[in-house]
Amino acid sequence: MSLTIGELSRQTQVKVPTIRYYEQIGLLAEPTRTEGQQRRYRPEDVRRLNFIRHARELGFEVEAIRQLLGLAGDPDRSCGEVHDITKAHLEEVKDKIARLTALRDELETMVTCDHRRISECRIIEVLADHGQCQHLEH
Amino acid sequence: MSLTIGELSRQTQVKVPTIRYYEQIGLLAEPTRTEGQQRRYRPEDVRRLNFIRHARELGFEVEAIRQLLGLAGDPDRSCGEVHDITKAHLEEVKDKIARLTALRDELETMVTCDHRRISECRIIEVLADHGQCQHLEH
DNA sequence: TCTTGAACCTCTAGCCACTAGAGGATGTAG
DNA sequence: CTACATCCTCTAGTGGCTAGAGGTTCAAGA
């Protein structure tokens, strides 16, 4: 009927210390305990933890997941807020991609350096000289 | 002739606590001090700190920068190692872009959800259900 | 019933690259 | 000589875990 933390871990692919961490920060409710203080979980905890895992895999921050979990428990509400959170996250991801793409192009130019001496190395030059690339952030 | 930490900060756009942090982890050498223990920098410290800043802007990790700084000080050496470090970093950046692009596509499908009730929300469904997207890491 | 040992428990500290803040000292311009 | 911007050190916090110490519990097999 009830699962140990290890069984929950196996079913969700979330590591045991991570489960305890999620409990500590309030993403997972405190489960019941045996007399010896070991945690015992119910099947619905598997569902909740899977939800959390999927959201983390999609790059949602813990704070966003906390909000999504709150909203998800309210079936009659409009999902506008869920949409907004996801959209905001999508925009962040797009931003990151844009910045990394600029970075990639810069690095690709740099690695065309053909193994001369350090004193003529294009990479070292780019790094040592001025800030042509001040627009880049990370 | 010599610069205060604030002047160094202004010239390099690196924040004062960050400069002290770089000293602490050994990226910057300990500068001379006034009698009152305030740091005083030489112009070459500006160059070194600019090098560090450029490398950070390009996403190099501190460990990589430590190596690059070591190599940069050796003008007659071949820049093969510099090339390798940069190439490895480039590959990491490409990897990140690939993962984020997969994420973006997944999120874009999700946000096509058209504001129904939570109980029919596509986003919540994706998060709650299965792991079609187990291949995604972040 | 007892023993073994895998799995559990709590607690603290570490990772990266900073950032923030407390509480006090220094240095320079007027 | 005073005011006050800037400097100093030290500690703790950020996010999302992960690792390890040192001890306890539980279930299966003898």
Which key phrases capture this entry?
homodimer; 138 residues; mainly alpha; two-stranded antiparallel sheet; 6 helices; 2 strands; disordered C terminus; DNA-binding; Tscrpt_reg_MerR_DNA-bd (chains A, B)
Could you walk me through the main structural features you see in this protein, from its secondary elements to its overall organization?
- 2 copies of one chain form a homodimer.
- Chain A has 138 residues and is mostly helical.
- Chain A has 2 domains: 5-72, Multidrug-efflux Transporter Regulator, Chain: A, Domain 2 (Orthogonal Bundle), CATH 1.10.1660; 80-128.
- Chain A is built from 6 helices and 2 strands; from the N terminus they run H-H-E-E-H-H-H-H.
- Chain A has helices spanning 5-12, 16-24, 43-57, 62-72, 80-110, 122-128; strands at 32-33, 39-40.
- The first copy, chain A, has a two-stranded antiparallel sheet.
- In chain A, a hairpin with a 5-residue loop joins strand 1 and strand 2 (39-40).
- The radius of gyration of chain A is 23 Å and the shape is elongated.
- The N and C termini of chain A lie far apart (48 Å).
- In chain A, 27% of the residues are buried.
- The model of chain A is unreliable at 131-138 (pLDDT under 50).
- At the A-B interface, helix 3, helix 4, helix 5 and helix 6 of A face helix 3, helix 4, helix 5 and helix 6 of B.
- The first copy, chain A, binds a DNA duplex (30 and 30 nucleotides) through helix 2.
